[in-house]
Design goal:
Blueprint: H1 3-12, H2 14-36, H3 39-42, E1 45-51, E2 54-59, H4 62-70, H5 72-81, E3 88-93, H6 112-124, H7 130-142
Parallel strand pairs: 2-3
Antiparallel strand pairs: 1-2
Length: 143
């Protein structure tokens, strides 16, 4: 499915065309926000939504949220100069989902006798056999 047919599909229904237009506005606001903010802030501030004339931003840390809240009046003026009329900008901290690092896989030991027997079995099978190739890889990694 090409990009134009996806655009045609999204523009075909009233609800989908409104959703597409809203997503386009959010992307344009994100680009404008990235231009208005200093680099260290722009990388961590994302436009979350636009509800009427209220822009909602998500940031990754509370410290950055405080700095951004202090900059709201100047951001409103900057957005206004860029042709975007906003009444307010809400800043919310979007906490990343915490996923603990998985435990390392348990170490497995294969005896020399077993490795030798598996190598002998792999050698007795046809070379193009998937089982022979798997056994050869196993013996190589286990050794």
């Amino acid at each position: 499915m090409s990009a134009s047919s996806i655009d045609n599909f999204l523009g075909s229904g009233d609800a989908l065309s409104r959703l597409q237009a809203h997503a386009g506005r959010l992307m344009r606001l994100q680009k404008l926000l990235a231009q208005l903010l200093p680099g260290y802030m722009a990388d961590y501030c994302k436009v979350a939504n636009l509800k009427g004339d209220e822009l909602i931003l998500h940031v990754e840390s509370s410290g950055l949220a405080v700095k951004l809240r202090q900059a709201v009046p100047s951001l409103l003026a900057d957005f206004g100069r860029a042709g975007v009329a906003l009444k307010d900008i809400k800043v919310k901290v979007a906490v990343r989902e915490y996923r603990p690092t998985p435990p390392p896989p348990p170490g497995r030991h294969v005896s020399d006798c077993t490795r030798h027997s598996l190598g002998h079995l792999a050698a007795s099978l046809p070379e193009d056999s998937p089982l022979a190739q798997a056994l050869q890889r196993f013996v190589k990694r286990a050794g």
